[in-house]
Design a protein that fits this description.
The protein is α+β, with helices and mostly antiparallel strands. It has four helices and eight strands; from the N terminus they run βαββααββαβββ.
């Protein structure tokens, strides 16, 4: 299985356009052979940043979606006039405590990103209604088992964030990036879903070195 970790910051005056595009693409996405699921989240650390986390059976399914005509047109418009910034990572799921029914983990790609900040990502999802808006991001991270993520010590993540699910209140997600292997994150809430992802491609609005398709350059 593969994950697409798409972090995006729409322009403040283009939120309605972004949400409209997402709603328009949803029925098309559901028809793609190999698509498994997609959940959207809001960042606790960066106001205005959204996370779209999708799961796919294999890379062929991703190719089907990437070459979908309407999806391509929406991407082009997003880059030109909707997105202030985005960061997209594609990776193979190497471990999953809650593999979706009818699917299995199998080795498909052994290569890793050559330009990204880290090649390993840990994703932990849990239902935690008590982690209200009054809690700081590092407190929410600790509730999901990631203690003091900002410490400059061996085994600490090189980047992290925590998110709230948009459509399912109380669902939380922590995402940590590691330089070369999952670090010191071994305590997880009971019932939480934990995934390890090996990042294959890492690119964004400006840096397109590992992007699989061409778009005209967008200035900073």
């Amino acid at each position: 299985m593969f994950c697409v970790i798409f972090e995006v910051q729409p322009r403040p005056d283009r939120w309605d356009a972004y949400l409209g595009h997402a709603a328009m693409l949803r029925p098309e996405l559901l028809r793609i052979d190999g698509f498994i699921d997609n959940v959207r989240y809001r960042s606790r650390r960066e106001p205005g940043r959204l996370l779209s986390l999708s799961t796919w059976r294999d890379e062929k399914a991703l190719v089907r979606w990437r070459t979908h005509a309407l999806h391509h047109d929406v991407q082009a418009e997003g880059r030109a006039s909707v997105f202030r910034h985005y960061h997209l990572r594609v990776g193979q799921v190497t471990a999953d405590t809650h593999v979706p029914d009818g699917h299995a983990l199998r080795e498909q790609r052994l290569d890793t990103t050559e330009v990204g900040l880290g090649v390993a990502v840990t994703i932990v999802q849990a239902h935690d209604p008590a982690a209200g808006d009054d809690l700081a991001p590092n407190e929410v991270a600790a509730r999901l088992g990631l203690d003091q993520p900002d410490r400059a010590v061996p085994g600490a993540p090189v980047a992290w964030d925590v998110f709230d699910a948009i459509l399912t209140p109380g669902d939380r997600l922590a995402l940590a990036t590691w330089t070369d292997a999952p670090g010191a994150w071994t305590r997880f809430p009971a019932g939480a879903r934990r995934r390890e992802v090996r990042i294959v491609r890492d690119y964004g609005l400006i840096d397109r070195r590992e992007a699989p398709q061409y778009f005209p350059p967008v200035g900073p």
